[in-house]
Automatic annotation (TrEMBL):
Pfam families: GDP_Man_Dehyd (PF16363). This is NAD(P)-binding domain-containing protein. Residues 5-295 form the NAD(P)-binding domain. It comes from candidate division WOR_3 bacterium SM23_60.
Length: 305
């Protein structure tokens, strides 16, 4: 049985990925940032900024596959604290790669990057220009370069660039969970029936987290180390369209007010990918509709509110 080490297993994507990999009968080593160690389940504490500790964890578990998800993953957070974003996402990746290479064995290193490195556009393929518009994108592309540098030195690394995804468990640093959480509070009379949002005309894919993690699992056996793959549905929706669906499924009426102070310093109007390369190789395609994804967000936040 192959052993898979997952960094960031305590996070939104990591927790979903661990569940899917276990369903596929892999042996999982879920690691987490020590201060964020979950109260339930067995998680291995791992601070990627501590290079010696990182080497010790990798040596203790001898994984065959590493999924590297641990990161500062919010564009908004990256603007608030660029140095922490660079340190976590770049130095953390470098320390992990070094620890993997020190194992002196064949390991498939799967690095989860981001569509943000493209800087925007429609039907973006893997050959599109790199245009870095925020600290998060800068950090992820720099981490990609770390991986590619070591690939030349025999690291078996696959780079995945997922487009926007969401689902239960995602924090309110992201727009659709913010909307769902506010509606849940309005339904329980905990806030007035008003949503204050930034630019609601930006267009993103908003894929479901379950579909994304199933794609990640398919990359293990199907993707060629040394290559880059978009994980994309090829279809996008505006936040305005999402609000229409939220309104139909809300138990109460609400108003929407756009607040210019909530607009990002550098906004990307459209960010839609071309995922044909990965889909053609693996047969993957999203199965969860946009409407069902929004419903799942509402159910989640109603239960938490």
């Amino acid at each position: 049985m192959k052993v898979i080490l997952v960094t960031g297993s305590e996070g939104f994507v990591g927790s979903h990925l661990v569940k899917i990999l276990r369903e596929l009968s892999y042996e999982i080593v879920p690691t987490c940032y020590p201060p964020l160690r979950p109260k339930t389940g067995k998680h291995v504490p791992l601070d990627l900024l501590n290079s010696d500790a990182t080497k010790d964890v990798l040596k203790a578990h001898e994984p065959d596959i590493v999924f590297h998800l641990a990161a500062i993953s919010s564009v908004a957070k990256s603007f608030r604290d660029p140095p922490r974003t660079y340190s976590t996402n770049v130095l953390g990746t470098a320390n992990l790669v070094t620890a993997v290479k020190n194992l002196k064995k064949k390991v498939h290193f799967i690095f989860i990057s981001t569509c943000e490195v493209y800087g925007g556009g429609d039907q973006i393929s893997e050959t599109a220009d790199i245009v870095l518009k925020n600290p998060y994108a800068v950090s992820k592309y720099a981490a990609e370069m770390v991986c590619q540098h070591h690939f030349v030195d025999e690291l078996e690394c696959t780079i995945l660039r997922p487009f926007t995804h969401t689902g239960p468990g995602q924090s309110q640093d992201f727009v659709l969970p913010t909307i769902a959480a506010q509606i849940a509070e309005i339904e329980k009379n905990k806030r007035p029936p008003l949503l204050e949002l930034g630019n609601i005309d930006v267009k993103r894919e908003f894929m479901n987290i379950r579909d994304i993690c199933e794609a990640y699992a398919l990359s293990i056996e199907n993707c060629t180390p040394g290559d880059i793959y978009n994980i994309s549905s090829n279809t996008g929706y505006t936040i305005r369209q999402a609000l229409d669906i939220f309104a139909k499924r809300s138990k109460v009426a609400f108003e929407v007010k756009t607040d210019p102070s909530k607009f990002r310093k550098v906004d990307i109007p459209v960010l839609i990918g071309d995922g044909r390369k990965f889909a053609g190789l693996t047969g993957w395609k999203p199965t969860m509709t946009f409407e069902k994804t929004i419903e799942s967000l509402l159910y989640y936040w109603r239960a938490k509110t």
